[in-house]
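Annotated sample (chain length 145).
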Amino acid sequence: MKLPKELYNGCIIFIGIGLYFFSMELLGLADLVYLRLFNILFVFYGANRTLKANFKEGKTIFPYNAVSALITSLVGVFLSIIGLIAYTYYKGGDSYIQTLPDTFLFVGKPSVMTYSISLLFEGIVSAVIVTFSLMLFWKKQYPSD
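Output written by the structure step:
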């Protein structure tokens, strides 16, 4: 059974983000905000792979490709949030959240779910922005009416 390319590339996004954050933590760089911003590159990579595959398959309908890229990005985001929740509980749950750097925009003492839901919203927004950006880039490849 072959996985749909959206799911496959979403898993690539998840693995890339996971390995990136694990390596940042191992190197002691997890508290540097600007390095955490580079995770969007993995979302660009996975969504762009989906669009390339669609184009090679002859699927040039603009809305279809926009939905396909968005689904790929959202799969990566959802899997990453699930992975974050699992990792956070593995490291100690709410007590681990309190040890994270104060560079996040949380007031008080957020719980694992508060932390994860806010990152989920951030991830959804970034998935939409990545999709729009890639569709603008690929627009010349997809003829419109």
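Annotation: The mean pLDDT is 86.
Annotation: Residues 62-91 form the longest helix (30 residues).
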